Every structure is written in structure tokens, then in C-alpha cells.
Amino acid sequence: MANNKKSFILYCDQKGTWDKLDDAQAGRLIKHILRYVNDENPTAPDFITELAFEPIKQSLKRDLKKWEGKQEQRSEAGKRSAEVRKRNAQLAKENSTTVNDRSISSTDSVNGSVSDSVNDNVNDKIDISIHPLLQWIEENTPRVQQLREPMTQKEVERLMSQFELDYIKEVLSRMHNYQQLTSKVVSANLTFRNWARKDSENQSNGKQTRAEQALANIASGSNEALNQVKGLGSF
User: Fold this and answer.
1) Considering its fold, how many domains does the chain have in total?
2) Residue 32 forms part of a structural domain
3) Is the separation of the CB atoms in 171 and 195 below 8 Å?
4) Distance CA 172, CA 196 (A)
5) Looking at the domain assignment, is residue 142 inside a domain?
6) What does the pLDDT look like over 61-97, one tens digit per residue?
7) Is the pLDDT of residue 197 over 80?
8) CB-based contacts of 146: which residues, under 8 Å, 6+ apart?
């Protein structure tokens, strides 16, 4: 028997073997079984006991292998569960932006030594680690941060270096108000860039249409042609 295994099974279909034994033979057999499962490596006291015990021994061995397999599965499941808890704890620690330092200002005078408790004004905690734009996103467009891949510190820093702040906020607001955002969108950063690219394409297509219209008016001698040509200079 394995360590920590405190029981074994005798099966109903073995009854036929037991019925063929008299009480004395059955008693010797059950004692032999108990010695076997307690790892005493017993020797059968007689041929009848040895013969009757053989099929029982094979079933005990099969049950032991099954038990050891289940124990191994439980051990592996426990290890995986521990790894998941450890990883989740690490992620929670990394995502925490709480700053424990506080700026304490006091208007009262200090007599002698510093008091253990300060009853003066205590400034609110200020999170100095989060990017201001990321803070704005969390407060004003929270659905963007609910995506499977929300905006990160590095991504908002890159956006700030490539786009105007007002435009960034305008696109993020549109994303936040998009009804199917959380069901159809995975990455906040990639979606922002796709929408910005489409905005740029639409703007380019609009300019081309106005330019073509101005040329058509010139060709037809329209009185508005000159004004339209002048207007193209603003593009």
C-alpha cells in the first residue's frame, strides 16, 4: 500500500471465492490480505490461501495504480492553482498605482518633539506614477480601459508624441461612445490608430473632391471658380 492510503476495496464479484472457503480458511485469507495491504510482505500459510489470494492481489494492485494516478493529478492541479494565484498577485501588485507617501501640512506649532499622531490637515494622496492622459482616459472614457487590451503608459506616451491632445481626446470619446466597443474591439491602441487613419483618409478624400469641383467650375466658366481655387490654398 502507498503512504497515506488508509483503505482498500473487496469486490462483490469475489463472493464466489469466499463461499468456497470454510470459516477457518476465510479467516486465514482475510488476515493474509490485511498483512499484505499493510506492507508486511506476508507468506501465504497454505496453498488454499495463496490460490484464493492471487486474484484479490491483482485487483488490489490495479486499485493502487488508479489511486496513485489520481493523487498525481491532484498534485499537478494544486501546483497550477498555486502558480495562477502567484501570477495574479504579481499582476495586482504591478497594476497598483497607489502611492503610500503623503504630504502632511500642519498649522499648529510643535512643542519639543514630533507628536506620534498628527491632527492637522493631510493632503489627499496624489498618484504621481500614472500618466495624466491615462488618468483622463480612466475618468472620462472608462469603456476604453475595459477592453481586453487597454491603453498602457507607453502607448499613451507614444500617442502624445504623434497626435494633438485635443484630437486624442476626441477620438477616445468617440470610441467610448461606440455601442459595440467591448464586444467587437480587442486593442484600444490599435483601434485608436485605425480610427485616426480613417479620419486622415476621409479628410484627404474630402479635399480631393473640393479640388475636382473647383477645376470643373473653371472649365465651365462658373463665377464661383475663383473663390473655390482660393479656398484650396487652405488645404
Assistant:
1) 2
2) yes
3) yes
4) 10
5) yes
6) 899 888 888 888 888 888 888 888 887 887 777 776 5
7) yes
8) 182
Residue 103, pLDDT > 70, answer no
Cα separation, 192 vs 44, in Å, equals 80
Residue 75 C-alpha cell reads as: 498534485
Tell me how long the chain is.
235
pTM for this model (two decimals) = 0.36
Q: What pLDDT is attached to residue 71?
A: 83
Residue 116 has pLDDT above 80, yes or no: no
Closest CA to 151 of 125, 143, 184, 21: 143
Residue 225 belongs to domain spanning: 132-232
3-class secondary structure, 60:
helix
Block residue for cell numbers 492622459: 133
The grid cell for 103 is: 504630504
Is residue 121 situated within a structural domain?
A: no
Q: Give me the residue label for grid cell 484600444.
A: 188
Task: Clarify whether residues 191 and 142 are in a common domain.
Answer: yes
Residue 37's contacts (CB-CB under 8 Å, 6 or more residues apart) are 1, 8, 60
Instruction: Identify whether residues 139 and 210 lie together within a single domain.
Output: yes
136, 90: one domain? no
46 in a structural domain: yes
Amino acid at 41: N
Characterise 183 by phi-psi region: left (phi > 0), alpha (psi -120 to 50), beta (else). alpha
- The grid coordinates of residue 162 equal 504623434
Q: Is 112 left (phi over 0), alpha (psi -120 to 50) or beta?
A: left
Task: Round the CA-based radius of gyration of the chain to a whole number and report it.
Answer: 40
Instruction: Give yes or no for residue 127 having a pLDDT over 50.
Output: no
Residue 43 has pLDDT above 90, yes or no: yes
